[in-house]
Amino acid sequence: MSVYHSSHPPLTTLDDRAAFEQLRIAATTQYQHMMSGTDRVVLSIAYSECTRAKGVDSVIAAFKAQIETRGVEIEIRQVGCFGNCYAEPVVEVRKAGWPAVMYGYVTPDDVPAILDGIRDDQANVATPLGIYLDGPADFEKPEPFQGIPPLKDDQFWRKQQRIVLGKAGLIDPLRLDEYIARGGYSSYVKAMFDMTKEEIIAEMKTSNVRGRGGAGFPAGTKWESALASRNDIKYVCCNAHEGEPNVFKDRKMLEVDPHQVIEGILIAAVAIGASAGYIYIGGEYPLAIRHFRKAVKDAEKAGLIGENILGTGRDIAMIVRVGGGAYICGEGSAMLYSIQGTRGQPRTKPPRSVEYGLWGKPTVVNNVETLANAPHIIEKGGAWYASIGVEKSQGTKVFTIGGNIKGVGMSEVPFGLTTGELIMDVHLGMKEGFTFKGIQTGGVSGGVMTEEDFHYPMTFEGVEPVGGMIGSAGFVVYDNTTSMVDLAHYMMEFNRNESCGKCTPCRLGTQSVLEMLDRFQKWQGRIGDLDVIMDTSDQIIKLSLCGLGQAAPVPVQSMIQRFRSEFEERCIDRPMRRELPLAAD
Amino acid sequence: MFKLTGEDIDLHWVQHVMEEHFTPRDYQEAQELILPSLQEVQERFGYVSEEAVSVIASHLDISATRVFGVATFYNDFRFNKPGDHVLLICNGLSCRVVGSQRLMDAVVTPRLGIGEKETTPDGKLTLQVFPGCLGACDQGPLCMVDGEYHAQMTTDRLNTLIDELLDGDTGQGRPVSQPTQQGGQH
User: pLDDT tens for residues A111-124?
Assistant: First the structure.
């Protein structure tokens, strides 16, 4: 007896809808049986680039060695990660008669204790994070088990509602059958057989799902204009080129659930009648690219992509393109140019890409997260989706938070939580020894928010009054050890390097602001420079063509407004500090 | 601007891979295949040379200047032979907040004494400070060596890592990877 490897059902080409339903039922039965732990205990270990960096390989090796010596039969699965990066490596145990138990901070030393616990029916060993029934963030709350509280009561999970991350950690990302077993591709089949194009788009419009890449344009409206466009050839293009500092939600989504993104692209393709779906992935994500390529291959083998899909006579091709490390290619039109094999420089709009996109054809360009929402909207209806979140910002949003904060990682919460709740509650607040100073919103494109702004709701419009921005929802928390001058310099340098050079205000303006900030960094600033920086920044914002230029100086402006004293301190002509009381006082 | 040294790139291999995986059906696909084929060459040899660009260009029936113009726009492409290992240091905002700059100042600059995209004199290590983000912000400060993440670096761990890289295989060249077969419609 040793580590058990469950067999993969062979991938056969599905000829029609009946064959798909058959596979779905078979896969569901097999998956549920496996997850119940009836035949054997199942260990699911979160495996990704980042857990590997935290030593998950040695944990797996320890489990394998122990299982071997003990002569028990246990299945080890590698799943995508759950999002609670701070607690990695994470191991989930499923045994018949137990709820699922999640252990965190697992080291090879914990392995014997966990295996002893499984043998002796003692779940409360090592560091259990919590128990759950179906998924970590589901609504069913189990009774505490052997003193282990439900995970739903855990601070990190309590306010989360998982839709696009619903399968994160529960399925093996490389297995098509597990995705199908959890309801995958059913929406795609439904959209293809049971719905007209107009109906699909109507659901998307009802849901009012807005673009998750930053701009917040309603996806349904975009799809509608693509459908209305009278052109034989249309494309769907999934923008998976994040490249933005501190944003990694798209990478995780491609790593933990690549099929969901494929399904989203396919639904969009069905809705607008596109002949091909493209995805443009940033080149710095080796694992995401690997997982996505494998998923595409499997879906092709199963006949869900390709020619005559499920006997409908419909052809949809899926093409994976990898970026070349230029940040600007995350901008829609630049990305399309990059796919076309040219330098990725944005162009003026209109015409928008939905009218004149890839190769001059109507193209729907959507973010990974937007498309990942589509299968759920088709499955449960637009009205259900619109009931989550708040007015104008419906649904959930995946946030990634970095910096010296306890709950570093990825969460999915409904829109409408306040900034304070997100940082101090869901992401567990500051690490010991660090105090909160500010939060960088929207990657490097938004303003800085401070503690005073904690009551603003996290919605597309909610954080605008204080210059914040949801953007791509990657936030960084600044603490007492970070220097604002240093960061302002860093961000301007980033934008200077990444400017494509097309618009003069962006190309030269970022450089001149950087030169001034250079002086501040060397304690050689001048008070007057601050006004010049603000003024120059205004010009860059007003006169640049694309989002990069329009957003580039925003963080710097916001930092100067909010932390002016830090900048003044570094001026050679700074006002005298009146630290000693004057005699006349 | 670039000193081009291309003697290590096996042009027959490039030609073979181009024929095998990057044969376009039409003009449109030929354009789309410029970037993937450049990436394939860089994946295998670590850099792209003028000769390789010529092979790609003639196979895709596009002018070499056009291909070169694309290659120079993108930050990922190298035009000089890199060392045996490539050390990428993430300079994303999250990594910076948790101390990537400290690693640069305390370890990289004093020990290696080389700048961005430069190689140590013994040809073992190429340094690249990644301007954007490697996308594993939860694990910062982050380094990447030959495609493998090394997370939560401290000065000690980075020192050990550099020791390993500098002591390792001597001048055997980069480990050769198999073609990733990313071309075409599949």
Answer: 999 999 999 998 88
DSSP character string of A377-411: HHHH-HHHHHTSEETTEESEEEEEEEESBTT-EEE
What's the one-letter identity of residue B185? Q
Prediction pTM value: 0.91
**Strand (E) or helix (H) holding A449:** strand A448-449
ipTM score for this prediction: 0.86
Joined together, the tokens standing for residue B68 give: 């070169």
Among A254, A256, A284, A431, pick the best mutation site for testing chain B contact (most B Cβ within 10 A).
A284
**DSSP-assigned states of every residue in B34-86:** HHHHHHHHHHHHSS--HHHHHHHHHHHT--HHHHHHHHHHSTT--SS---SEE
- Going by C-alpha positions, the residue among A430, A453, A450, A449 that lies closest to residue A441 is A449
Confidence of residue A576 (pLDDT cuts 50, 70, 90): low
C-alpha closest to that of A477 among A321, A279, A246: A246
- Say which amino acid occupies B90: C
Q: How many CA atoms lie within 13 A of A335 on its CB side?
A: 30
CB atoms within 10 A of CB A268: 29
Strands A389-390, A393-394: pairing is antiparallel
Q: Which helix (H) or strand (E) holds B94?
A: helix B93-97
With tokens 């607008």, the residue in question is A272
Q: Which two tokens stand for residue A462?
A: 């909610």
Residue A583's pLDDT is 56
Answer whether residue B36 shows pLDDT above 90: yes
Residue A486 has a CB neighbour count (10 Å cut-off) of: 16
Distance in Å, alpha carbon of A584 to nearest chain B alpha carbon: 44
HSE value, Cβ hemisphere, 13 Å, CA-based, for A311: 9
For A:298-317, CB contacts with B below 8 A are 300, 317
pLDDT > 80? residue B137: no
Among A48, A275, A300, A476, most B C-beta atoms within 10 A, so best to mutate, is A476
Q: Which two tokens stand for residue A378?
A: 């088709």
DSSP A198: H
Residues contacting A207, CB < 8 A, separation 6+: A220, A373, A377, A381, A382, A383, A385, A386, A394, A395
Q: Which helix (H) or strand (E) holds A366?
A: strand A363-367
A360–B contact, CB cutoff 8 A: no
Interface of B with A (CB under 8 A): 28, 30-36, 38-39, 69-70, 73-77, 92-94, 96-98, 101, 130-140, 147, 149-152, 182, 185-186
Residue A326 dihedral angles phi and psi, to the nearest 5°: -115, 115
Q: Which of residues 213-272 of A touch B (CB under 8 A)?
A: 242-248, 251
For A584, residues 6+ apart whose C-beta sits below 8 A from its C-beta are: none
Instruction: Give B15→chain A minimum CA distance, Å.
Output: 19
- Taking the C-alpha atoms of residue B117 and residue B130, their distance in angstroms, rounded to an integer, is 10
What is the separation of C-alpha A225 from the centre of its chain, rounded to a whole number of angstroms?
27
CA trace torsion A442, A447, A452, A456 (10° rounding): -50
Q: Which of A374, A378, A369, A428 is nearest to A398 (CA)?
A: A369
